[in-house]
Design brief:
Low-confidence stretches: 38-70
Oligomer: single chain
Distance between the termini: 105 Å
Largest sheet: 7 strands, mixed
Strand content: 5-15%
Strand order of the largest sheet: 1-2-7-6-4-5-3
């Protein structure tokens, strides 16, 4: 009888010990869960702060300091009269307008869609961010303002229509009557008969300055 009582007491003691051990494990697990939750929440909060700051700094609708730095530069005129842009030209795809440092622009961040530039002549002004994408593909952009003689505009249009990787459009904001632009390069000409026109086309249509040689000049925007 005494032996049975001892055995029962031993089992009770083991059960109690096991119960205490289980309770201790549960407490440890709860502590670990709480600690892990705190870490996760802290990480989410920190990530949210960084995201908000990033959006505030980079998505304000205008040019950021980084954009301005990428556009910083100046023209240096070569012996042939072509002005070469000395500075970094961004090549990011953006859907907002870009504050280019020169008109017409010679490069920089631009719209993801290019203007068709397979000898395309546009009668109205076009979006410069789309035209810059065409320059990236190796196109030459012929532009003119209201001071350009009608005969020169018509003669240049006929030349552009025969020349792949070119496009033409009016740009009222440009200083000179007729301007030729390639990626990172630009020059004015006196008219359609100016020998510099053919020289510029020969050198810069799909020229060495092209960031993306062979890229398409079709299947883009047509107006």
């Amino acid at each position: 009888m005494g032996s049975a009582k001892k055995s029962s007491a031993a089992r009770t003691a083991r059960v109690e010990e096991m119960r205490r051990a289980e309770q201790a494990r549960e407490r440890r697990n709860r502590i670990l869960v709480v600690a892990a939750s705190v870490v996760v929440v802290a990480g989410l909060v920190a990530g949210g702060v960084v995201l908000v700051r990033s959006q505030s700094d980079g998505d304000g609708g205008g040019s950021s300091a980084a954009d301005d730095a990428k556009n910083a530069g100046k023209f240096v005129t070569d012996a042939d009269g072509v002005r070469a842009w000395k500075g970094t030209l961004g090549r990011n795809h953006v859907t907002k307008s870009v504050d280019y440092p020169v008109t017409p622009p010679v490069g920089g961040d631009h719209n993801p869609v290019w203007m068709n530039c397979d000898g395309d002549v546009y009668e109205d002004e076009i979006n410069d961010t789309n035209a810059v994408h065409s320059l990236e593909h190796g196109a030459v952009w012929v532009t003119y303002n209201g001071d350009a003689p009608k005969a020169d505009v018509e003669a240049l249009a006929a030349k552009v229509e025969k020349t792949p990787y070119t496009l033409m459009s009016p740009v009222d904001g440009q200083k000179d009557p007729i301007v030729l632009t390639a990626w990172g390069h630009q020059r004015t000409v006196t008219g359609a008969a100016d020998p510099a026109v053919d020289a510029f086309l020969e050198k810069f249509v799909q020229g060495a300055q092209t960031p993306e040689p062979g890229a398409a000049c079709t299947n883009g925007l047509s107006k």
